[in-house]
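> @MW can you paste both from yesterday?
MW: sure, first one:
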Amino acid sequence: MSENSPWKDFVLDDVIKQKAVFVDVLEVAWQAYRTEKEMRSMFEGSGFDIQNI
């Protein structure tokens, strides 16, 4: 988790389910608890045009 992440409180069971869906089912890199700035940079760097968050 990024030290700048606004996500300080979370439900562990929800995190486990999210990991299961993204990693085990979809087989993608799991990107949890990143800041909006980090996500924007990642998407824009991949060629996406951010319309609204």
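MW: second:
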Amino acid sequence: MNPSTGKKRGDPSTPSSPRQYKRQRTIATPTDSSTATLSAPLPDTITNDLGLDKHPQPSGPYLPSLLTTLVNPKIASPESAFSSKVKDRYLSLDNPPRDAAKRKAARLRSKKLRQGKNKKEKLNASDKRRLGVYDVPKEQCKYKLFEPLHELWNQYMKDLLGDSNNIVAAIALPKILKADFHGCLLTVIRSKCPSYIGTTGILFKETEKLFHLVTADDQVKLIPKSNSVFSFSLNTTVFTLFGNHLMSRASERAAKKYKYKFTMDL
């Protein structure tokens, strides 16, 4: 016998071990009768004492009957309101699933927009050379394609210098030095390389040290400015250009201030 409880050790109602006690607790679960007692309606005596309104028991399903009782009949018919707004309607309690690829694309797009607002991408000189931004395709290096450019250049020089028959050297030379020669028909009259002498073509590209010419037979010639002398004609006037004086880019030459110097010999 257990002196504290007064029960014998062999009594089945007395748990002999913690495991047996836990099993007994697990078995002692609420029954359906206890659950039904919790959800049972209040007795009439309690509802009368509290002054609660007693709703009549619905004859059909509980939810439609409850909703129809909550609708004000003066505003709308309860049955029509239930059939138009509640009946056969589905309410999704979960967010609609989205594809992982769509989420990733949206995330990358928003990140790109944020980066574009903060910083604008610019190409440096090496990127431009690598991409060939200023390169002219070989199939487009045709003499006939640049003849309209040469005509535009002639009109540009006439507007720049005025009447070619009354040109003042002190005024015309600085203008010629800063002029844009794209479209000019240049001829090499002197050079340290004899193979360049006599080459004539339309200038379609100018770099710091080179003139890119396309000849009448659609050949591209790269003539170095250094140690070369060029000439071009405008109406009846012939102008001479020393390549050593033009050793700069066209954009830099247009903004540069030059000083008068003696003519260099090759």
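> thanks! The chain is about 40% helix and 15% strand.
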